């Protein structure tokens, strides 16, 4: 998950020519690692980062390339930098990120660990290694890395947010809420922090707090489909059916093929005894996703109530033929 809206001091932009082969290699590698947002040119990212390393804790750079080949080329070029300057910690970390993006988590971990040995007071290195450990499902040690990054730099917003993600995975829900709250205190436009905190409040059945967090996420991004659907599910659970329907319809406005929204509208229709309306929406779910087993089951149950036994049997036969290892998206 990318992190948005991290406020920080603006970087000093260096446009001076590259002064060495190392800088040229580094800049080519860095631009490939960020090729979705950055084109290789006269901007000297080597100097920008050397002069203002705190820029690495912001969201200025996303580390997202246009394709896998760019990550591979970036990795190779950072390796060339390290041949010329083996102690260049930043290149080690960025090579680790390039490996991470290619799902070489062991290689990424090794690079970040080497960087930490070389520069043990580098919070960026701990934050990156924490993300790698999180991807490897090593959540406890990921939390330790994020905590070390925070101890080294108490204003490191991204480390708080990332630690919240890891705490969520081990069901340390209060700890995650605390970290998301700190993130929001740093940046009250952090939609992901509001959304994720809302998810946890929802799990804990703190429904009003969850609704408030989803409201804030929607204020920041009024096209946040997941926030509308999650808020709609809470309204459904609270039997506020019209509010639930309104949220599902808004989600469909922004994502016309969202099966979760259609499925949940069908649930509302069914609960309010609008059986034919429910069937119409289950039809739509199956039209979009013919492997959606729950839609067949629920439609079959309604058809049984309506004594349409032939259609009911067809739904049960169809459901029985599906791959039940299939991961349904959007079951409420």
Can you describe what's shown?
The chain has 332 residues and is mainly α. It has 17 helices and no strands. It has helices spanning 21-33, 45-51, 68-84, 89-101, 105-118, 123-135, 139-152, 157-169, 173-186, 191-203, 207-220, 225-237, 241-254, 259-271, 275-288, 293-305, 309-320. Residues 1-19 have low confidence and may be disordered.
Descriptive terms for the model:
single chain; 332 residues; mainly alpha; 17 helices; 0% strand; disordered N terminus
Topology:
Blueprint: H1 21-33, H2 45-51, H3 68-84, H4 89-101, H5 105-118, H6 123-135, H7 139-152, H8 157-169, H9 173-186, H10 191-203, H11 207-220, H12 225-237, H13 241-254, H14 259-271, H15 275-288, H16 293-305, H17 309-320
Helix pairs in contact: 1-3, 3-4, 4-5, 4-6, 5-6, 6-7, 6-8, 7-8, 8-9, 9-10, 10-11, 11-12, 12-13, 13-14, 14-15, 15-16, 16-17
């Amino acid at each position: 998950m990318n992190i948005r809206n991290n406020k920080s001091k603006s970087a000093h932009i260096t446009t001076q020519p590259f002064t060495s082969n190392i800088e040229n290699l580094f800049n080519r590698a860095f631009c490939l690692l960020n090729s979705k947002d950055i084109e290789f040119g006269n901007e000297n990212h080597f100097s920008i980062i050397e002069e203002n390393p705190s820029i690495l804790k912001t969201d200025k750079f996303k580390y997202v390339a246009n394709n896998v080949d760019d990550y591979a080329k970036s990795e190779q070029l950072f390796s060339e930098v390290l041949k010329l300057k083996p102690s260049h910690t930043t290149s080690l970390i960025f090579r680790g990120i390039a490996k991470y993006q290619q799902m070489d988590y062991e290689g990424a971990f090794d690079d970040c660990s080497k960087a930490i040995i070389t520069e043990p007071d580098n919070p960026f290195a701990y934050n990156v290694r924490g993300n790698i450990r999180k991807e490897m499902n090593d959540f406890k040690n990921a939390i330790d890395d994020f905590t070390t990054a925070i101890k080294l730099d108490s204003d490191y917003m991204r480390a708080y947010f990332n630690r919240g993600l890891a705490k969520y995975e081990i069901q340390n829900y209060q700890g995650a809420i605390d970290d998301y709250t700190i993130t929001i205190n740093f940046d009250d436009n952090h939609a992901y922090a509001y959304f994720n905190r809302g998810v946890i409040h929802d799990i804990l059945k703190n429904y009003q707090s969850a609704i408030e967090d989803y409201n804030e996420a929607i204020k920041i991004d009024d096209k946040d489909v997941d926030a509308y659907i999650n808020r709609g599910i809470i309204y459904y659970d609270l039997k506020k059916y019209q509010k639930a329907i309104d949220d599902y319809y808004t989600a469909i406005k922004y994502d016309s093929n969202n099966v979760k929204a259609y499925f949940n509208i069908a649930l509302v229709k069914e609960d309010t005894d609008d059986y034919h309306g429910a069937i119409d929406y289950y039809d739509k779910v199956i039209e979009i996703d013919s492997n959606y087993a729950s839609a067949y089951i629920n439609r079959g149950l309604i058809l049984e109530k309506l004594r349409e036994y032939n259609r009911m049997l067809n739904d049960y036969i169809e459901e029985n033929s599906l791959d039940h290892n299939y991961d349904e998206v959007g079951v409420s």
